[in-house]
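User: Just a sanity check before I run the rest of the batch. Below are the structure tokens for the first item. I only need the designed sequence back.
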């Protein structure tokens, strides 16, 4: 992955086309890991894809850490990736021009995803334009994306067994694309204190 502690935990990293789930409570470091994965892609001159169901960029790490430390409003870091701070770029070890060029951010307000195909088509379209496979695809976070997709189906999916079956089909499609492109896909999910 290019993220040292993650590579240690994963016994050397990911296998091309592997899909991994990262589960943690709010404030557990999911977005920090996402930014580290994106920075590792930049250092390898690959595109990193980040689809958020919350903000355009959860990732100005310095601001995010300040928010978490002080409990101040999350709105402070809803900024857009071009505004990433120099302190964060230094922390990640990348320069701003590379960050803007190689990190592709999408969020639900810009790109409503009714099925995972909408997101995956955007990734494939970019691959066809550049001729390069992405280095990583990050979906943050699955619970909200799943709820949004289930609500957009016709008729909306409300039964829990239908939702689980739909989730499995969507994750399977994401895994297939990761295998096809030979890049890892990380699916983040927020634990909420109850059994998930």
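Assistant: Here's the designed sequence for the first item:
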């Amino acid at each position: 992955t290019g993220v040292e502690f993650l590579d240690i935990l994963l016994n050397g990293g990911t296998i091309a086309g592997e899909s991994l789930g990262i589960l943690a409570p709010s404030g557990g470091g999911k977005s920090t890991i996402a930014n580290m994965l994106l920075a590792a892609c930049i250092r390898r001159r690959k595109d990193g894809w980040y689809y958020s169901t919350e903000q355009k960029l959860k990732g100005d790490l310095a601001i995010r850490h300040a928010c978490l430390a002080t409990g101040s409003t999350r709105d402070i870091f809803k900024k857009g990736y071009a505004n990433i701070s120099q302190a964060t770029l230094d922390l990640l070890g990348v320069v701003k021009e590379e960050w803007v060029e190689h990190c592709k951010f999408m969020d639900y307000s810009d790109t409503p995803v009714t099925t995972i195909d909408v997101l995956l088509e955007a990734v494939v379209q970019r691959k066809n334009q550049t001729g390069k496979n992405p280095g990583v695809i990050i979906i943050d976070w699955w619970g909200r994306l799943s709820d949004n997709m289930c609500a957009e189906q016709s008729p909306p999916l409300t039964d829990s067994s239908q939702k689980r079956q739909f989730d499995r089909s969507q994750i399977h499609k994401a895994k297939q694309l990761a295998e096809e492109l030979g890049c890892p896909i990380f699916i983040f999910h927020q634990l909420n204190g109850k059994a998930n």
